[in-house]
């Protein structure tokens, strides 16, 4: 999946600092194991409060990381198709 260049730089910095787990996972616990879903949820909620206006953060908008995936699909379906050259 293509990502913007500034995010490539962030990922490269993360890899240089933390590396990957033995099984090549990008994000892992301090013990090198899978990060529990409860940790992802907690961090997601904290990030929403920092990133969104309070009224939006209080709404169900993007209340789970998976919601962004569904939102992106909806955006693709709703935009006009680009003409092929």
Summarize the SSE layout with pairings.
Elements: H1 5-18, H2 37-51, H3 54-57, H4 65-78
Oligomer: single chain
Question: What kind of sheet is the major sheet?
Answer: none
Helicity, in percent?
Answer: 55-70%
Strand runs, count? 0
Mean pLDDT figure: 81
Shape annotation: globular
Number of helices: 4
How far is it from the N-terminal to the C-terminal residue, by CA?
22 Å
Strand content: under 5%
Unreliable stretches? 80-85
- What order do the helices and strands follow? HHHH
Cα-atom Rg, whole angstroms? 17 Å
The chain-level structural class is: mainly alpha
Task: Give a short overview.
By secondary structure, the chain is an all-alpha fold. Helices cover 55% and strands 0% of the residues.
Task: Describe the overall structure.
With about 80 residues, the chain is an all-alpha fold. Helix content is about 55%, strand content about 0%. The chain has 4 helices and no strands. The longest helix is centred in the middle third of the chain and has 15 residues. The C terminus is likely disordered.
Please give a handful of descriptors for the protein shown.
85 residues; globular; disordered C terminus
């Amino acid at each position: 999946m293509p990502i913007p260049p500034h995010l490539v730089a962030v990922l490269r910095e993360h890899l240089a600092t933390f590396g990957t787990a033995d099984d090549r996972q990008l994000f892992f616990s301090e013990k090198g194991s899978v990060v529990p879903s409860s940790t992802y949820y907690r961090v997601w909620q904290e990030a929403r409060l920092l990133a969104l206006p309070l009224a939006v953060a209080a709404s169900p908008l993007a209340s789970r990381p998976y919601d962004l995936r569904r939102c992106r699909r909806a955006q693709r379906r709703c935009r006009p198709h680009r003409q092929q050259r």
